[in-house]
């Protein structure tokens, strides 16, 4: 029985390897067939489900992506790609809150493993998109409710002053109680929509190289804060010096700027529209 079981597992692994070869050649249909055979042989191996989900992802077959990624995660919840793929499927369904949770799980798994996987950038991009779309959806609803409430308040105020005989302006043309209350009402509702009104992100929250809001800010010995990935690329491709001060700089000298990171998170919590890229 053990030998038979081992033979089945070996056959499944061969099908996975063949599927990977087909995937690299963009033969997605053939790859799906190989992974499907591997799953039939060993349905408890998470990577087979995830690899097939990735093929469906390339084809934008979102229902199948969701199904396979969920099966993969049920077997191994630590799969970064599994959470990423599931998040993408949920994003397509406009289930933004659920998609955000999956993307955040994927990022947290990368951070806990101290990985510098380039996939982090892809995850951040879709996470930012999901958070912006979630804000946009709820913002539209909030603005509509606020406008409806404003109109109802104006109507009630007008009716009150009409019945009280104080609706008309004073004889000298000056503003009366009704007009003053209307102005005050407008100010109150204007302030209520401020959080949903996009403005320029403060400069200190943006990288001096990309002009985008910080994701992983680090500070140099010169006291300048940069986006980590961007600065590392500069050190690797341009030279070991600070881009602004031109002072000598090595990767080991970079220190996470926790204060700026906390400020960014606080700002994004109050202004989710800032998840738009290119601030």
Automatic annotation (TrEMBL):
From the broadest rank down, the organism's phylogenetic lineage runs: Eukaryota, Viridiplantae, Streptophyta, Embryophyta, Tracheophyta
Mind telling me what this protein is named?
E3 ubiquitin-protein ligase CHIP
Q: What stretches of residues are TPR repeats?
A: 80-113
GO MF: protein-folding chaperone binding; ubiquitin protein ligase activity
- This protein's source sits in the domain of life called Eukaryota
Q: Which GO terms describe its cellular component?
A: cytoplasm
**Pfam families hit by this protein:** TPR_8 (PF13181), U-box (PF04564)
Q: Which GO terms describe its biological process?
A: cellular response to misfolded protein; positive regulation of proteolysis; proteasome-mediated ubiquitin-dependent protein catabolic process; protein polyubiquitination; protein quality control for misfolded or incompletely synthesized proteins
Keyword ATP-binding included in the entry's annotation = no
Write down the InterPro entries for this protein, in alphabetical order: CHIP_RING-Ubox, TPR-like_helical_dom_sf, TPR_rpt, Ubox_domain, Znf_RING/FYVE/PHD
Keywords, ordered alphabetically: TPR repeat, Transferase
Q: In which pathway does it act?
A: Protein modification; protein ubiquitination
**Span of domain U-box:** 200-274
